[in-house]
Amino acid sequence: MLNCKLSTVTLSLLLFLLTPLLYADSSAKLAKGIAALDEKEWETAHMFLAPLAEAGNSEAQFRLGYLYRNGFGVDKNFSEAVSWYQKAAISGHAQAQHYFAVNLELGRGITQDLNEAAIWYRRAAEQGSLDAQFWMAKASLTGNGLKRDLETSYLWHILALEQDPECGRLQNGLDELTNQLTPLQIQALDDQIDIWRANGKHGVPKNLR
Questions:
Q1: Within a domain: residue 10?
Q2: Alpha carbon distances (Å) from 96 to 6, 61, 127
Q3: Residues 15, 19, 25, 31, CA torsion sign
Q4: Could you give the C-alpha distances from 196 to 32, 126, 155, in angstroms and in order?
Q5: In whole angstroms, what is the distance from residue 84 CA to residue 67 CA?
Q6: Final residue in a domain of this structure, among 127, 142, 172
Q7: H-helix segments, 75-129
Q8: CA distances to 86, 129, 132, 188, 208 from 160, in Å
Q9: Where a domain ends, among 103, 127, 151?
């Protein structure tokens, strides 16, 4: 029993000591994979990214989805791409959540499911994905994909404009909402935005939770 306990302690110590080294090695391989993507060296990118994706690295999963989506270094396969986007999305990768939502909405590489798409658009938007925030803003304004809610749309428009203040489509949508909401509604929503900004723009305003 003593030897068994000593072996367990020794193994735990080894794992404790090796974990930073393993993490550093994974980070280095991920960086090489991304660099290969930038250089359009698709086979090299796949060589570095695939093992990391299989091991659960969400960034590698997202990038691997990109390779399959476009047929770079691999046979183009929408289903495979969406599978990797989904894995990364479940791990909390905001861009992957948005890409997964797009494919769910279009039924590309996966069975179309508009309700599920809206869930993933929202998750991505809450994490700061500009594209997802834009979708939430427009969908809640038009009722196309979400229940029409002008106050919710106003808040999503503001959050998206914080990232892209020059976007004419967002500004036009906000102008349309300003004409439809009452001054009291707008003031209450602007107060929420002020609180959100004062809190360092963490999370989303109260009405969006």
A1: no
A2: 44, 9, 11
A3: positive
A4: 38, 13, 11
A5: 10
A6: 127
A7: 78-90, 94-106, 114-126
A8: 24, 9, 9, 19, 13
A9: 127
Token couple for 26:
């994974």
d(CA 82, CA 60): 14
pTM above 0.85, yes or no: yes
Residue position matching structure tokens 């508009």: 114
Could you state, in chain order, the average pLDDT of each consecutive group of 10 residues for the chain (209 residues)? 50 53 72 95 96 96 98 96 98 98 97 97 97 98 96 97 96 97 98 96 92
Whichever domain contains 62, its CATH number is 1.25.40.10
The pLDDT value given to residue 15 = 52
- Predicted pLDDT at 4: 45
Residues 87 and 134 in one domain: no
How far is residue 30's CA from residue 41's CA, in Å, rounded to a whole number?
14
Q: Which tokens is 14 given?
A: 């080894």
